[in-house]
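Retro notes, structure queue

What went well: the backlog is down to a handful. What didn't: a couple of records were mislabeled last round, so from now on we paste the full input next to the output in the thread. Example, using DNA-3-methyladenine glycosylase I from Flavobacterium restrictum:
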Amino acid sequence: MDDKKRCNWCNSSQLYQKYHDEEWGVPVYDDATLFEFLLLETFQAGLSWITILNKRENFRKAFDNFDYQKIALYTDDKIQELLLDAGIIRNKLKVYSAVTNAQNYIKIQEEFGSFSTYIWDFVNGKPIDNNRKSLKEVTATTPLSDKISKDLKKRGFKFVGSTVVYAHMQATGMVNDHVADCWKRNE
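Corresponding output:
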């Protein structure tokens, strides 16, 4: 670990710091990466993010490198195989939702040209800078995450409550929630 000032939530491990420094809050416009984060965020529901980060490579292997085209076609046999995989979160509803969400992801791509176009349109194509002074100011949801959550649910997505959606927005840089004294704040 080094002496850089970071958002306090990431200081418990080097893996957390690496994620914070290299990924969290960096704008993502690539559909494949956006799906990876969406899948991971849906599995995180009710758990800590570090739990998911620790299992990320297991998820990558189990879910065909997060290839939503393949995931959309998973059979019951593949789902049963996933439910036996101790390297991931073996929640039956979440595993089934990964398949459903991949199918709906493709439908959004067909409608909007890309998932990126769809999701980034909610913020007019550029990150919202929340100018957080401290971690206490960071909320778990916003009216915008409520709106996106409702729209995704209307389109058939599962495990996309407002908290999951806001975490996805933070992770993919749709919002900048780095606190004022974090070195990543103004990068």
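Agreed that this is the format going forward. Reviewer comment attached to the example: Residues 62 and 81 are 9 Å apart (CA to CA).
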